[in-house]
Design brief:
With about 140 residues, the protein is α+β, with helices and mostly antiparallel strands. Helix content is about 15%, strand content about 55%. A hairpin with a 4-residue loop joins strand 3 and strand 4.
């Protein structure tokens, strides 16, 4: 019986920590998914699905993005302006990477926030690293 009480006590003590970890992992934020890559004339079009899971609409969000080639070598730095991101609503945004083929893009790194505006003023709402996912062969990092 002593073993069962000790095990039960350990479980009861761990419950608050497990709940806290689950809450932190499930905290609402931005979700950015690289949904498709498509060859365009003289460019590779990257299509993103962005979901703002916060309770606050974002007027505009821009991120510094680094493109790496298929061998993992730095190719360029650019800005992606995701524009407005309404609360609790998905948005699709497309960006053309000129003078390259999709086959030559291996990784896309969301390097940091360049601009985030909420209610007409600068905000730190976009500063947290978004949850990232890629449905393509191109790796999305943050």
């Amino acid at each position: 019986m002593k073993f069962h009480r000790s095990a039960l006590a350990a479980i009861v003590c761990a419950l608050p920590l497990m709940a806290q970890a689950q809450t932190e992992e499930e905290a609402p934020g931005l979700m950015v998914e690289l949904n498709a890559v498509e060859e365009m004339e003289g460019a590779c079009r990257l299509t993103f699905l962005v979901e703002n899971e916060t309770a606050t609409s974002i007027d505009s969000a821009s991120y510094q993005v680094v493109i790496f080639d298929a061998a993992g070598v730095f190719e360029r730095v650019t800005l992606f302006g995701f524009r407005d991101l309404p609360a609790k609503r998905p948005r699709v945004r497309q960006f053309d990477i000129r003078d390259t083929t999709c086959e030559n893009i291996g990784r896309v790194l969301i390097n940091g926030v360049s601009n985030c505006t909420v209610g007409g003023t600068d905000s730190d709402l976009c500063d947290e690293t978004p949850t990232l996912n890629s449905r393509t062969e191109v790796e999305l990092l943050g």
